[in-house]
Amino acid sequence: MVNNVFLRGIACAVLVAALLPLVGGRPATGQSPRASAPPAGETVKATWTLIPGRAKDLSINAAAMAYAVGSDGVALRWRAVSQKWARMSGGFARITAAEGNRPWGVTPDGNVMRFNGLWWEPKGDKVADVAGDAVGNIYIVRLTGSVEKWEPLSQSWKAVPGQLARRIALDIRGKPWIVTPAGQIMRWEDGAWITMPGIARDIALGADGSAVIVDGNGQLRKLRMSPMRWVPYEGITDVVAAGLTPNGGPWVTLADGRIFATVLIRDQVP
User: Fold this and answer.
1) How far apart are CA 15 and CA 24, in angstroms?
2) What secondary structure letter does DSSP report for 16?
3) Would residue 266 count as lying in a domain?
4) Cα distance from N-terminal residue to C-terminal residue, the chain
5) 134, 79, 87, 132: which is closest to 264 by C-alpha?
6) What range defines the domain where residue 50 resides?
7) Distance separating alpha carbons of residues 171 and 120, to the nearest angstrom
8) Where are the beta strands (DSSP E) in 89-210?
9) Is 268 a member of any domain?
10) How far apart are CA 230 and CA 76, in angstroms?
11) Would residue 81 be called left, alpha or beta, if left means φ above 0 and alpha means ψ between -120 and 50 degrees?
12) pTM
């Protein structure tokens, strides 16, 4: 059930969170930390299942709620019982699952919108990307690259200083990881940006503490520790966007819009 997966994910994430500050990262200095390339031939084995529909972005939160941006820009919500997408409304370039059935999206012209259950409410402009989690944390990346956090009490955005970004995702603790304009991967920890190894163009984080990136060649890679490295998945190429189920199973969209998953979401989500 979703609740059991969620609890297992939290336990794993706590362990990963405890280890991350000790392994492979350091405050951003303009240079990447030393990291090991995967041993020759090391891969992540996976069985990929074709999911109905076509999309250009997708997102899954810790409650197993999945959303996508269809090829025509319309927001889609995954229906676990019928195993297909339900059309919502709006026209978007990016989307994030968030708290409850309240996704956020970014329109092609840079407006960030929140679904209130009936319609999409504008929450800002000049936005390139948005990331949310199941407990209400929301971050955006502006077109300028600045990172900002939503403050619900004041209904305003608060700057997160120190680094520019083009993509953003949140871990189980609600802390942002970003991909910079140069493709560097960084995470926010104790008031500073910590540089991670690797180069990416998209990133996704799971409730179990897992992390994947889409590298510059469209290859999906999984973060492994000791030593820290990004290991490629078998059987999938030309990836443009990724999301992770609560137990770390990736869903991806390809350049041609097809959607593939390693773990199917079968539990009905309220």
Assistant:
1) 16
2) H
3) no
4) 13
5) 79
6) 2-261
7) 25
8) 94-96, 104-106, 112-115, 120-124, 127-132, 138-142, 147-151, 156-160, 167-170, 176-179, 184-189, 192-199, 202-205
9) no
10) 30
11) alpha
12) 0.86
Express each pLDDT in 122-170 by its tens digit: 999 999 999 999 999 999 999 999 999 999 999 999 999 999 999 999 9
Largest CA distance in the chain: 52
Q: Return the number of other C-beta atoms located less than 10 Å from residue 216's C-beta.
A: 10
| Geometric angle at alpha carbon 58, from 73 and 217, rounded to 5° | 100
pLDDT at 216 over 70: yes
DSSP state of 88: -
Question: How far is it, in rounded angstroms, from Cα 13 to Cα 9?
Answer: 6
Q: Is residue 141 part of a domain?
A: yes
CATH number of the domain that 180 lies in?
A: 2.120.10.30
Number of domains in the chain: 1
User: Which own/partner contact pairs does 260-265 have at CB distance under 8 Å and 24+ positions apart?
Assistant: 260/48, 260/49, 260/50, 260/51, 260/236, 261/48, 261/49, 261/51, 262/46, 262/47, 262/48, 262/49, 264/49, 264/83, 265/60, 265/64, 265/66, 265/78, 265/80
Task: Please check whether residue 175 lies inside any domain of the structure.
Answer: yes
Alpha helices for 25-165 (secondary structure H): none
Contact yes or no for 183/216 (Cβ under 8 A): yes
